[in-house]
């Protein structure tokens, strides 16, 4: 397959040169010798760890409090003798309260399971994987991973910089992209919504991405919120993390569904439902997230905050990565919609962000507030150079917009998917 695609990127043209061959979703493959039932049982044993206490949440989740030294990360061969790092070797900054903005009414997110209890010291909360989650998954062996994909190389320009962007064929993305530096960290407040997802095998996110390496074999860390029925079995908005060291071909997964991320926090549930979410023309909620390199401990920390405290969630040991062992080369903030039927026939009606276009702005369109990059100076700055980017402007749009002249813009993104102009 070889073709050229012209895509509008803000005011810039993005030229995608060739479709690389390869990865296509194998779908649900069952070995003939084992019944699906036995396979499901085996997988459940693998995914669920012995727990100290368990909590039944009103949203249907069962949360197991697992001994911090028995968490999935310790199943990784590189982490057999790992000593858990307690906190970053520097003091994390607690938000950016100095920035003046009239959009100061957003509240940090909270998780549904907190109403039903908490995990004791020395444990971490893990969402229990139930039989029905696996039965609803599109593929048993790829459960918790992203579906296989075809990756296209696109040349993307920001000012004088040209760089290769790996576009995943079955995804539609609208994001603010920064490149041109060696990034040692990134953060932002990510506005939280609960957009409709049309089919059970599709998903939609609001997220921050750090990536590095060749376009078809890259290291990636993603954090944010997601509605993903095939992983979570429902259409709630959930906090998620994701990582890979090979563009998602075989390594990496969501949350703690494969070993890699070491969690140190007993109050934040990865994959846990978030409530309330933002309402149209109403109260806005955000997830404040920061991913930052610790050069002393050789890990990437994941940090959030609630109204009162900075919360260190955990870290990825740098050994998990190849080029991101050192730094990230590109940062993105925005939305991602996945559908196995993307670019074939009718467009999906799975929405991105609030489900409304970026042009609707505050409290109607989904936003990213105070996106920040950290370089070798180890201080946070507004990401520059950076540029809004969208693959399908009539389906999901992207715009940097400042309500008041000379103040920092908010990045707005999203849309309904299928509509009159996106058939
Ligand atoms: C872990 O420790 C054991 C015993 O000290 C040692 O034999 C083994 O090589 C270590 N494994 C790794 C991956 O460092
Ligand atoms: C922002 O904060 C200021 C002072 O804390 C307050 O007066 C103002 O009403 C807030 N703006 C919004 C839109 O909530
Ligand atoms: C749990 O740890 C916190 C902080 O270290 C401490 O203040 C608290 O007393 C501990 N709780 C229990 C039950 O040990
Ligand atoms: C990535 O793409 C390049 C050129 O398109 C190709 O030579 C290389 O084999 C690919 N690598 C992987 C891991 O797919
Ligand atoms: C999961 O499967 C059950 C039946 O096994 C079905 O009723 C339900 O709608 C499915 N949910 C999702 C989100 O796939
Ligand atoms: C990539 O991640 C996988 C899974 O954790 C690991 O087995 C592999 O060694 C990693 N690759 C590199 C080159 O570090
Ligand atoms: C913030 O998190 C800390 C530590 O988990 C907790 O003690 C505190 O109650 C939380 N504050 C709010 C407002 O939720």
Question: Can you offer a commentary on this structure?
Answer:
The chain has 423 residues and is mainly β. The chain has helices spanning 36-47, 131-136, 229-232, and strands at residues 5-9, 12-19, 53-56, 62-67, 107-108, 123-127, 151-158, 161-168, 171-183, 185-191, 203-212, 219-227, 238-244, 253-254, 262-263, 285-294, 299-305, 310-317, 328-338, 366-374, 380-381, 386-390, 397-401, 410-414. Strands 5, 10, 15, 16, 17, 18, 20, 21, 23 and 24 form a ten-stranded mixed sheet that branches. Strand 20 and strand 21 form a beta hairpin. The longest helix is centred in the N-terminal third of the chain and has 12 residues, at 36-47. The chain binds 2-acetamido-2-deoxy-beta-D-glucopyranose (7 copies). One 2-acetamido-2-deoxy-beta-D-glucopyranose (NAG) binds next to helix 2. Residues 164-423 form the Neprosin PEP catalytic domain. Keywords: Signal. Residues 1-22 form the signal peptide. Pfam families: Neprosin (PF03080), Neprosin_AP (PF14365).
Descriptive terms for the model:
globular, seven-stranded antiparallel beta sheet, 3 helices, 423 residues, 24 strands, ten-stranded mixed beta sheet
Quick recap:
Helix content is 5%, strand content 37%.
Structural class: mainly beta
Poorly predicted residue ranges:
1-13, 18-31, 97-103
What is the beta-strand fraction? 35-45%
Mean pLDDT level: 88
Major sheet: size, sense and barrel closure?
Answer: 10 strands, mixed
Level of helix content? under 10%
Question: First CA to last CA: what distance?
Answer: 24 Å
What binds here, in terms of ligands, is: 2-acetamido-2-deoxy-beta-D-glucopyranose
Instruction: Output the radius of gyration.
Output: 20 Å
Order of SSEs: EEHEEEEHEEEEEEHEEEEEEEEEEEE
Shape: globular
Question: How would you name the oligomeric state of the polypeptide chains in this document?
Answer: single chain
Number of helices: 3
The count of DSSP E runs of length 2 or more, i.e. the number of strands, is 24
């Amino acid at each position: 397959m070889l073709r050229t695609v012209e895509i509008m990127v803000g005011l810039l043209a993005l030229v995608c040169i060739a479709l690389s061959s390869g990865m296509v979703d194998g779908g649900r493959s069952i070995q003939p010798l084992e019944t699906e039932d036995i396979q499901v049982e085996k997988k459940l044993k693998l995914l669920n760890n012995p727990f100290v206490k368990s909590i039944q949440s009103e949203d249907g989740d069962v949360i197991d409090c697992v001994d911090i030294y028995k968490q999935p990360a310790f199943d990784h061969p590189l982490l057999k003798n790992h000593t858990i790092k307690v906190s970053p070797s520097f003091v994390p900054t607690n938000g950016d309260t100095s920035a003046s903005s009239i959009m100061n009414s957003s509240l940090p997110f909270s998780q549904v399971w907190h109403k039903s209890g908490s995990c004791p010291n020395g444990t971490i909360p893990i969402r229990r994987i139930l039989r029905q989650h696996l039965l609803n998954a599109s593929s048993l062996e790829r459960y918790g991973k992203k579906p296989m994909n075809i990756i296209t190389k696109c040349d993307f320009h920001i000012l004088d910089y040209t760089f290769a962007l790996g576009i995943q064929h079955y995804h539609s993305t609208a994001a603010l992209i920064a490149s041109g530096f060696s990034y040692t960290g990134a953060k932002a407040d990510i506005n939280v919504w609960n957009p409709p997802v049309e089919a059970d095998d599709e998903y939609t996110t609001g997220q921050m991405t750090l990536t590095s390496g060749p376009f078809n074999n890259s290291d990636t860390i993603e954090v944010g919120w997601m509605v993903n029925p095939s992983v979570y079995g429902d259409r709630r908005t959930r906090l998620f993390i994701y990582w890979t060291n090979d563009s998602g071909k075989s390594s990496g997964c969501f949350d703690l569904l494969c070993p890699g991320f070491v969690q140190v926090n007993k109050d934040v549930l990865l994959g846990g439902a978030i409530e309330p979410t933002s309402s149209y023309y109403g109260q806005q909620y955000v997830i404040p997230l920061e991913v930052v390199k610790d050069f002393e401990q050789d890990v990437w920390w994941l940090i959030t905050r609630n109204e009162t405290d900075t919360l260190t969630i955990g870290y990825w040991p740098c050994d998990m990565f190849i080029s991101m062992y050192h730094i990230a080369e590109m940062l993105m903030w925005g939305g991602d919609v996945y559908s196995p039927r993307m670019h074939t026939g009718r467009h999906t009606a799975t929405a991105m962000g609030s489900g409304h276009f970026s042009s609707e702005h505050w409290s109607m369109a989904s936003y990213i507030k105070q996106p920040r990059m950290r370089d070798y100076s180890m201080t946070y700055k507004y990401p520059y150079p950076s540029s809004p980017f969208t693959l399908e402007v009539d389906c999901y749009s992207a715009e940097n917009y400042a309500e008041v002249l000379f103040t920092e813009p908010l990045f707005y993104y999203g849309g309904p998917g299928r509509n009159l102009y996106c058939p």
